[in-house]
Amino acid sequence: MESAIDTHLRCPRTLSRRVSGDYAPPFPMFVARGDKALQQVVMAYFGVQYSEEGKRPQALAALGHIVESFGLADGPVRHDLTDHVDNQDHHNLMAVAYWADPAAYCRWLRSDDVRAWWESQERLTEGLGYFREVVAPRVEQLETLYAFTEDFPGIGGVMGQCSDEIEEHGYWGSMRDRIPLSQTDWLEAGSELTVVSGDPAKGGRVIVRGHDNIALIRSGQDWMAAGEAERALYFDEILPSLQDGMDFLRDNGDTLGCYSNRFVRSIDIDGNELDESYNIGHWRSLDALERWAESHPTHLRIFVTFFRVVTGLEKLRLYHEVSVADGKDQMFEYINCHPRTGMMRDAVVPAAV
Question: Quick check: 104 and 294 in contact, CB under 8 A?
Answer without folding.
Answer: no
